[in-house]
């Protein structure tokens, strides 16, 4: 799996939530974001199928108000997080019977950015004084996302 530059990853988490991460956390992060994006696409596929469409349209994705707000905040955060390596691992959408259309594909970087920002800020909700998330913190954050998304 391709990974983004560690320095950009570290800088993003510091800017987003004043949390220090390192290269060992990058693999966790990439896996998490990829898994969450696939989950959103699977739900989008179910909606497209229920509506008789062969492709996933942007409105098929179950984007919550909170995720939408995180996407807007990510756009305002000027940290240059490189999302392409995460998206590249999903090329071909092999697990989907109905692929996302062009408009939906163009929306994916914003979704990944919003999820990334929300994840970073989740650490501060789990522990407001947290500086360096441990494996336990990462697991709690993942459990919260799995529960809500």
Describe this structure in words.
The protein is an all-alpha fold and 149 residues long. The chain has a single domain, classed as Histone, subunit A (Orthogonal Bundle), CATH 1.10.20. It is built from six helices and no strands.
Summarize the structure.
By secondary structure, the chain is mainly alpha-helical. The protein is built from 6 helices and no strands. Helix content is 64%, strand content 0%.
Name some characteristics of this structure:
149 residues; mainly alpha; Histone, subunit A; 6 helices; elongated
* Topology as a string of helices (H) and strands (E): HHHHHH
Distance between the termini: 23 Å
At the first level of CATH, the class is Mainly Alpha
| CATH structural fold name | Histone, subunit A
Structural class: mainly alpha
Multimerization state: single chain
CATH architecture grouping: Orthogonal Bundle
Mean pLDDT: 88
- Output the CATH homologous superfamily: Histone, subunit A
Overall number of structural domains: 1
Query: What is the percentage of strand-forming residues?
Result: under 5%
Low-pLDDT parts are none
Helix content: 55-70%
- Backbone CA Rg: 15 Å
Main beta sheet: none
Separate helix tally: 6
Report the principal-axis shape. Answer: elongated
The number of E-state strands comes to: 0
């Amino acid at each position: 799996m391709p990974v983004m530059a560690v320095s950009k990853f570290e800088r993003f988490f510091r800017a987003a939530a004043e949390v220090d991460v390192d290269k060992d956390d990058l693999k966790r992060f990439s896996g998490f974001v990829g898994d969450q994006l696939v989950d959103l696409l699977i739900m989008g596929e179910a909606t497209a199928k229920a509506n008789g469409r062969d492709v996933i349209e942007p409105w098929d994705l179950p984007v919550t108000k909170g995720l939408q707000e995180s996407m807007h905040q990510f756009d305002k955060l000027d940290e240059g997080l490189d999302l392409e390596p995460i998206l590249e691992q999903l090329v071909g959408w092999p697990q989907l019977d109905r692929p996302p259309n062009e408009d939906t594909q163009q929306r994916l970087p914003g979704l990944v950015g919003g999820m990334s920002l929300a994840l970073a800020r989740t650490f501060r909700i789990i522990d407001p004084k947290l500086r360096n998330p441990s494996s336990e913190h990462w697991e709690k954050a993942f459990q919260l996302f799995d529960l809500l998304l």
